[in-house]
Amino acid sequence: xxxxxxxxxxxxxxxxxxxxxxxGLKPRLAERFGPRADAVFAGFTARLVPYTWHLTASGRxxxxxxxxxxxxxxxxxxxxxxxxxAGAHDLASNLAALPPYPEVAESLERLGDxxxxxxxxxTADGVRALVERAGLGSHFEHLLSVDxxxxxxxxxxxxxxxxRAFAAPAAEVVLVSAHxxxxxxxxxxxxKGALVARETAPTSFLGQEAEVVVGxxxxxxxxxxxxxxxxxx
Length: 233
Fold this sequence. Notes:
Layout (H helix, E strand, L loop, with lengths): L9 E4 L12 H8 L3 H21 L6 H15 L6 H8 L11 H7 L5 E5 L3 H10 L8 E4 L10 H4 L1 H6 L6 E5 L2 H9 L3 E5 L15 E3 L5 H9 L5
Parallel strand pairs: 1-2, 1-4, 2-3, 4-5, 5-6
């Protein structure tokens, strides 16, 4: 962690894998694919983000549920299973019903009066459904979706949604994410980065390292206080 910084104006949270647990898809996959479910899940998660990168790099955009459906079809085929387009879209709809990680509600409460947003590759409707289903809506001032700019993270236009929503300089907004590539994109766009390193030790992404690193979201409030030079709890 680096030295004390000016106070942060706002905090934006990534959704998938940071606030909401993608492993919540596994029960539905087990129902549909049986013993091949784990292979389908692995193939799906290996494809979803690279598919979004490809679309943005090639100057195209498709909403995340469509991208997820394509990833499910390819992952099922690779695993020796089959799912038709309607079935794949049904599976993709579960991205709007993922469970939050166990510590999320408590951690958001402990952030007190800080200004918060979700900044996600998901659709506006999908992000709203996720947050409302989890009972977390009262914590967030903004629910930001790349639908607004039709470019997926790490395109700078996606990260620019947060400073614009809060009417704050990019350097006073921190993105909280479990993905180092996501934080590297945010930092390239001028934001600060806070890494949630739940399962693996932090490394770096193209030489970029997060300003703040926590093991899970319970550590975030105190870590941000230290980053800003506030007195410890």
